[in-house]
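HUMAN:
Sorry, I am quite new to this. Are you able to go through these amino acid letters and fold codes? The numbers rather puzzle me.
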Amino acid sequence: MINLENVYQKYINKYTSIQSAKDEGLLFEQMIYDSIVRNFVDFVIRREKDVKNEYGKDISAIDIEIFKNLKVKDLKKEQNKHVFIQAKWKDTTESVKSINHFIQCCNEISKMKNIDENNIYCIYSTKVDVSKPSLDALNRQKNGENIVCDNMERCVYMITKRIADIFDKKIPIIMILLKK
């Protein structure tokens, strides 16, 4: 059995001690990113800065973008799926405005890249439940969802597993949880 506390402690030691909600949020994003990079080596994975560089500074609500780097000939065989993640690790509920901005950014990229709405996945991951109006806004998005979990490691696992499901990729549980 994997001791999740040890995995979490490694991250804390690596990324200094946590002093604020902002620091916890950055740690959460880093843990998600590390898990995705480790488990989706044949995919394009962009952090927030890279997303802004690619699509413009107005696209500011996406922490992580992931997609397969498909060639034109492959588009006939595979769907051009894109996953966008916004990760929030704080004890307060996110505003509808924040969630709507995230959805707007996802939709803007979809338009820029001419991606079918069925192939856009918007994951808003939080420590606490979003408000009813915020959840309604996410649910209006074709593939919008809120992944909620009050345990950081478990949440990283749930996000990584969800991405694997979207791309029909099998990942052993041990690969999701352990650092190489």
About this structure: The first strand starts at residue 43 and ends at 47. Helices lie at 4-14, 21-39, 48-55, 96-113, 132-140, 152-166, 173-177. The chain is about 45% helix and 15% strand.
